[in-house]
């Protein structure tokens, strides 16, 4: 483990390598504890580079066993090894040369899950961002691209399968009990895309014929016996391949595409060239064990990793500051894919919900950073929702600003111009400038300025002049290292509605560019005047969430109710319902803190119930409308002096009032939304289940007892319904015999299935209230708990810290102390996981003072600990700053 205090890496210091890597030949002799890796690397000095510059290769926890230069021993004075590098001097000025490095590594002892490691008897690798240096000494940076040949030698019985990137060259026996396989990847790639898998796995096979008529073999490898559970992933893969051809004109470029599912993985999945490695949570599904959300995630992540083949692999990042170049763009692409496969407005609502609950707090707290940062101490800590999700929103804004067709032209230009290169955000933006003739300099601030812009709007209608003036003001809050900000170019999709719900088309607009229903806010303050507006309009701003901003616009409940009913953009309808709900929830939290009575506005309750009952709306949309802002959403909107208990109590009271008022509607929906016949994970059926389950939630508030949820649990024939009923029982009636029996029944039925056991832990980790800490501690002693498995850790500790505000934020600080002790323990094995779990503390300054004090003490305790990893030290120090 690297336990330095962390060298800061600056974008301004970027310079190309002195040596060009021509070819990589790797030979692995696999052994659980002593794997031998021979790397033959051919270099030449870059034209114009310093003729005396040494070759510096990165390394981490490596054992150098031999070093050859052009096949000869190298004199000791020609090279130097430190904990982090191998430096070789006295190299030719122009001629190519070969360095052969042999290292010994221990996959079994690799608990960080970076580099080559073992999981359930399988050898696998994770090299992004800097894991390859844990395999061999190498120029481990994304701008060093080369073709790779890989030879794998291993025990034949234990490892019938030997896989790496590219196309299979051949294989044969190799001495007693062993065999070997050779792979060649002709596409030059950076080391972070290298992958190797060896072991004994089952496979699902299919083929895909590409747009030019080439047949590609598709293989998904899973543990033996789990093959049927990979069928949905295979289907999603084929749909992804077709969609990328149809929508982006991108064809797959090797003869084979493989996915391997493993059970120990730090992230969701990894786009290694031709050999994606997945957390098995995002591959395996069947109706009995996977929820509709699981199916949707599998579809999205399979697509995401596949889409990386062009946005990430064929065109990669010059350096890690450019991470959003591949991630923001690829998230945008997977969002578009899911929108096309499912319901666009419902998908957009889900995206925005996720953005607001995960990215907005990041952008508004101590860990805020630009989409394209300029410095980092630990790159692993920059795989954030800002880089991914805000990065995707920035790409979406380019499409909104330029329009579909010009955006497509810009993308085509990007693929043409930069195929095979490692490039920057500036290169990417330039393609859209060239394709559109538009100057995107001001727009580019979205990449460079952190913080969520706040746009304040106010409107006045002049009946005499038949004009409507909309005044807009933008403010970008200060963030770490960026005290002042420039005004940004904010595309606001906007429409005006008359009292009867019809759309008003203004004759002309002054004061701001307004084209294709998009208003361009570019100055700090700006007033747009809409002429030819016959009656007072109700304005809908930031439709489809065209810009990732906070909008303050004082609209009356009546105006919001009108938008909730008539907006043609269904995302904006949902937004109007949320805007109606929020003041009620905020007031409820304040009233609960003061012990005052909690009363909900009637307009809101009526509008919500009307939307729930509106059969012209798709069920999935209605379910989204009924899912009120979460307790964390309410806390974020409150902004300061947060008492999680009051937020919880206030929200519960509002839920009860809606439930009482809408009881008949919910009961009718619960009966009407039954899905009959064979289970299908399609979006329509999932929407019906979501609406039925939302109705069940409200009924459990109206009825105040666990009977209906118990009946739902007993009658469920799929995991969506089963886990929803179990959650209601466990969260709303935790002390009931029904809840206890259901939890026990669930455990005994599914204890052999790790992914379902994760759900069992997560549901219990989320039970609100004082008892949560002790419940989580007790669950850690359960024989099913596995400390070394990231999914299990995330389901128990992660759900507790991120998803249980009252339990984690217990008034006496025990939740924070517990987390601190866990972080220190996890950090010894898996720093990446520890650092990620620690980000749950990022909003500690918004808490009321007693809790904030407890949180600070817990953070200080972590900061004081000896031997912290760079990952955790970076997060804890930034969080405390
Ligand atoms: N590039 C992957 C994410 C990823 C990043 C780092 C990892 O290391 C543990 C693993 C995966 C993606 O965007 O899917
Ligand atoms: Zn990605």
Please give a quick description of this structure.
Residues 558-881 form the Peptidase M1 alanyl aminopeptidase C-terminal domain. This is Aminopeptidase N. The chain is α+β, with helices and mostly antiparallel strands.
Describe, in plain words, how this protein is organized in 3D.
By secondary structure, the protein is of the alpha+beta class. The chain contains 26 helices and 34 strands. The strands form eight sheets. It has an eight-stranded mixed sheet with strand order 6-5-9-3-2-12-15-14, with no helix packed on it. A five-stranded mixed sheet has the order 17-18-19-21-20, covered by helices on one side. It has a five-stranded mixed sheet with strand order 29-32-26-25-34, with no helix packed on it. A hairpin with a 5-residue loop joins strand 17 (202-209) and strand 18 (215-222). It is globular, with a radius of gyration of 28 Å. It starts with 8 loop residues before the first strand and ends with a helix. Bound molecules: O-methyl-L-tyrosine (0A1) and zinc ion. The site of O-methyl-L-tyrosine has 12 residues, from strand 20 and helix 2. It is an enzyme of class 3 (hydrolase). Residues 451-553 form the Peptidase M1 alanyl aminopeptidase Ig-like fold domain. Keywords: Aminopeptidase, Hydrolase, Metal-binding, Metalloprotease, Protease, Zinc.
């Amino acid at each position: 483990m690297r336990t330095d205090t962390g060298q800061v890496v600056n974008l301004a210091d970027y310079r190309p390598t002195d040596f060009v890597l021509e070819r990589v030949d790797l030979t692995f002799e696999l052994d659980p504890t002593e794997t031998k890796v021979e790397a033959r690397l051919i270099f030449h000095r870059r034209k114009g580079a310093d003729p005396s510059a040494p070759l510096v290769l990165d390394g981490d926890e490596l054992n150098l066993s031999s070093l050859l230069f052009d096949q000869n021993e190298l004199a000791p004075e020609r090279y130097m090894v430190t904990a982090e590098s191998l430096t070789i001097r006295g190299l030719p000025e122009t001629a190519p040369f070969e360095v052969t490095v042999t290292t010994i590594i221990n996959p079994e002892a690799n608990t960080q899950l970076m580099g080559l490691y073992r999981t359930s008897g399988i050898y696998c690798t994770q090299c992004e961002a800097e894991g390859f240096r844990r395999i061999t000494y190498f120029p481990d940076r994304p701008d060093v691209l080369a073709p790779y040949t890989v030879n794998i030698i291993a025990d034949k019985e234990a490892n019938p399968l030997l896989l790496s990137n590219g196309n299979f060259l051949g294989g044969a026996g190799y001495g007693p009990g062993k065999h070997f396989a050779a792979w060649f990847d002709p596409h030059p790639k950076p080391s972070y895309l290298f992958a190797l898998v060896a072991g004994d796995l089952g496979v699902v096979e299919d083929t895909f014929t590409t747009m030019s008529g080439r047949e590609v073999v598709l293989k998904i490898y899973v543990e033996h016996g789990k093959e049927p559970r990979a069928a949905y992933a295979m289907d999603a893969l084929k749909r992804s391949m077709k969609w990328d051809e149809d929508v982006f004109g991108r064809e797959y470029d090797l003869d084979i595409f493989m996915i391997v599912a493993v059970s120990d993985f730090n992230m969701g999945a990894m786009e290694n060239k031709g050999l994606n490695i997945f957390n098995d949570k995002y591959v395996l599904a069947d109706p009995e064990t996977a929820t509709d959300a699981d199916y949707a995630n599998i579809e999205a992540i399979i697509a995401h990793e596949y889409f990386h083949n062009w946005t990430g692999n064929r065109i990669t990042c010059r350096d890690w500051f450019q991470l959003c170049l591949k991630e923001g763009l690829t998230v945008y692409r997977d969002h578009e894919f899911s929108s096309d496969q499912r319901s666009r407005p419902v998908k957009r609502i889900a995206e925005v919900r996720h953005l607001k609950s995960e990215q907005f707090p990041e952008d508004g707290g101590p860990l805020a950073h630009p989409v394209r940062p300029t410095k980092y101490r630990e790159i692993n800590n920059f795989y954030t929702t800002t880089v991914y999700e805000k990065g995707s929103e920035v790409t979406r804004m380019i499409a909104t600003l330029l329009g579909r067709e010009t955006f497509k032209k810009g993308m085509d230009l990007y693929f043409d111009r930069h195929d095979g290169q490692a490039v920057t955000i500036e290169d990417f933006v330039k393609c859209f400038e060239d394709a559109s003739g538009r100057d995107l300099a001001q727009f580019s601030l979205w990449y460079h300025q952190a913080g969520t812009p706040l746009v304040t709007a106010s409107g006045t209608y002049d009946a005499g002049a038949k004009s409507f003036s909309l005044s807009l003001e933008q403010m970008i809050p200060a963030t770490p290292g960026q005290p002042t900000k420039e005004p940004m170019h904010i595309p606001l999709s906007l429409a005006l509605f008359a009292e009867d719900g019809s759309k008003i088309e203004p004759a002309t607009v002054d004061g701001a560019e307004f084209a294709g229903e998009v208003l361009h806010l570019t100055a700090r303050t700006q007033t747009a005047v809409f002429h030819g507006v016959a009656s007072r309009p109700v304005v809908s701003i930031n439709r489809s969430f065209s810009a990732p901003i906070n909008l303050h616009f004082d609209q009356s409940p009546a105006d919001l109710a009108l938008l909730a009913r008539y907006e043609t953009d269904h995302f904006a309808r949902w937004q109007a319902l949320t805007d109606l709900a929020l003041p009620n929830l905020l007031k409820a939290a304040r009233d609960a803190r003061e012990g005052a009575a909690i009363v909900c506005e009637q307009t809101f309750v009526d509008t919500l119930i009307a939307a729930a009952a509106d059969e012209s709306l798709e069920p999935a949309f209605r379910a989204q409308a009924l899912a009120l802002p979460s307790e964390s959403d309410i806390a974020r909107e409150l902004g300061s002096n947060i008492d999680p208990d009051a937020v919880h109590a206030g929200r519960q009271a509002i839920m009860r009032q809606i439930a009482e008022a809408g009881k008949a509607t919910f009961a009718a929906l619960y009966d009407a939304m039954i899905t009959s016949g064979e289970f299908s994970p399609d979006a329509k059926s999932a929407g019906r289940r979501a609406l039925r389950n939302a109705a069940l939630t409200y009924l459990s508030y109206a009825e105040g007892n666990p009977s209906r949820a118990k009946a739902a649990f007993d009658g469920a024939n799929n995991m969506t319904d089963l886990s929803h009923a179990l959650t209601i029982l466990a969260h709303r009636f935790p002390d009931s015999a029904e809840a206890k029996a259901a939890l026990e029944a669930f455990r005994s039925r599914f204890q052999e299935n790790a992914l379902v056991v994760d759900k069992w832990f997560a549901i219990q980790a989320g039970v609100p209230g004082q008892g949560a800490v002790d419940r989580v501690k007790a669950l850690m002693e359960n024989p099913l708990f596995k400390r070394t498995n990231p999914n299990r850790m995330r389901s128990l500790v992660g759900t507790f810290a991120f998803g249980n505000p009252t339990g984690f934020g217990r008034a006496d600080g025990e939740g924070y102390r517990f987390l601190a002790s866990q972080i220190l323990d996890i950090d010894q094995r898996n720093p990446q996981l520890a650092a990620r779990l620690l980000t749950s503390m990022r909003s500690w300054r918004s808490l009321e003072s007693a809790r904030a004090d407890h949180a600070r003490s817990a953070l200080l305790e972590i900061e004081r600990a000896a031997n912290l990893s760079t990952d955790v030290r970076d997060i804890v120090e930034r969080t405390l700053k």
